Amino acid sequence: MNKIFLICLLVFTGNLWSQSIDDAYRYSRSELNGTARYIGMSGAFGALGGDISAISSNPASSAVFLNSIATISLKSRNTDDNLRYHGSTSYSKSDEIDLGNVGGVFVFQGSSDKKLSKFSLGLNFNTTSNFDNNFVTGGISRQSVDAYFLQKANGIPLDQLQLRDDENIADLYSFLGENFGFDEQQAFLGYQGYVIEANQDDPNNTEYFSLVEDGTFDQQYRYNTTGLNGKLSFNIATQYEDWLYLGLNLNSHFINYDKFTEISELHSNTSNDPNVTSRIDFGNNLRTNGDGFSFQLGAIAKAGDHVRLGYTYQSPTWFNMFEETSQYLETYSSTGEFVSVSPNIINVYPEYNFQTPSTHTGSVAFLFGKNGLISGDLSLTDYGDVQFKPKSDLFFQSLNDAISETMKMAPAFKVGGEYRLKALSFRAGYRYEASPFENEEIRSNLNGYSAGLGYNFGSVNLDIAYETSNYEEQIRPLNSVVLNPVSLDRDLSQFVATLTIGL
Questions:
Q1: Disulfide-capable partner of 62 in 103, 120, 428, 468 (CB 3.0 to 4.6 Å)?
Q2: Which residue blocks in 1-140 are alpha helix, DSSP H?
Q3: Using H for helix, E for strand and C for coil, what is the string for 185-240?
Q4: For the segment 345-369, what is each residue's pLDDT rounded down to a tens digit?
Q5: For the chain, which ranges sit under pLDDT 70?
Q6: Predicted pLDDT at 9
Q7: Helices 146-153 + 182-192 axis angle, to 10
Q8: Three-class SS of residue 478?
Q9: What pLDDT score was predicted for residue 181?
Q10: Those residues with Cβ within 8 angstroms of residue 410's Cβ, 6 or more apart along the chain or in another chain
Q11: pTM of this prediction?
């Protein structure tokens, strides 16, 4: 059904925001993406070069190339989710094919009498995170969605939630968003949708009770997200004499994220009281767009003929973010009376700033002549440093405090190896990423394994790789602590093929 939306531009002071700790993690995390050689060694490239995706690990890597190259990768991404919700289990699977990586490096040789014997310029596009996720799960709960609306409503005067003679649903929903904020809009939906009722019919009343009877509820939760976090890197690097490589990345970032959720519940056994609500359908749409900037500094040093050492500093990413939301609530009474509270309003939130944490990475690689190598990276990221801005906003101050208490320093370790047999290369890797949360039930540690093959045809290289990883996490409907979470056990796998051409 086509709908004509009005625009509610939230431009006044107060709690106008809807951001959460989930957003802090979603936009800060990164996944393993890149060329097949990079994936085949689990991304352990901080002390190595010779691969376009190594630039994302250490910008000095491009100066290791002997010749100019161009590369493109295609990726097949597969997710298998085992879901638990209110004691019931379900399964979801998705598959997609997209462009995994594209880029090139131009190498320029210096004069033999100069200490800067070589420099390089590179351009690389890489997906930082893929947001695609889709599942439907359900179960029998003893907790109703009414808890969400009660939490938002208690403390809000009844006068704000009642329609005036010349007002409709869209008018008051828009007015509350413009002048008060998100919580007031949620309370309004619950009150007008007959989920909650005021304790007293008094404009100054600030306490509410539920119109949903106690009992059990057949709940269903629908979750669909799409989008990605992408990074375009402009790289410059140089080789100093024959033992040191130095590099700089200037990174342009973008975020596209769309999320639709719907939580529905049907009371398993209600009375015939027409004032009792027996069914609730509550839908929410979120659209987020952002653009940002970061930089990376890196160095690779030869410590003898067989050892390479690397270090990379990844700056915070400074994002400008734009969000808009829309909602609807539909309810049925025990006698079948239908109520729809659909404001047909798009809430356009004020632009805000978001800052991810910085990352420090130390790397070491051992080379065995032309036969192969072993490489390892150790990265440290303090997710408690995530910041929503402006810091002068009271809601962001509270949210940033909650992030610093909830999230923590999270080390990540990668190790990979490559063995060469003439033109054929065999690769394998392992990676470990610690949970960024103090409570690891929110998101568990991640373990991943990879393997790959490559063949050198001379001026052309063809590489393939397979990688799989597993982690568990909790997804809370409506980002609310008063509702039970969905527990997700995810197996994520990808198959990558890369073509590299010497220029």
A1: 120
A2: 21-26, 36-40, 54-57
A3: HHHHHHHHCCCEEECCCCCCCCCEEECCCCCCEEEEEEEEEEEEEEEEEEEEEEEE
A4: 999 988 999 999 999 999 999 999 9
A5: 1-18, 111-113
A6: 55
A7: 130
A8: helix
A9: 87
A10: 380, 381, 382, 383, 433, 434, 435, 436
A11: 0.92
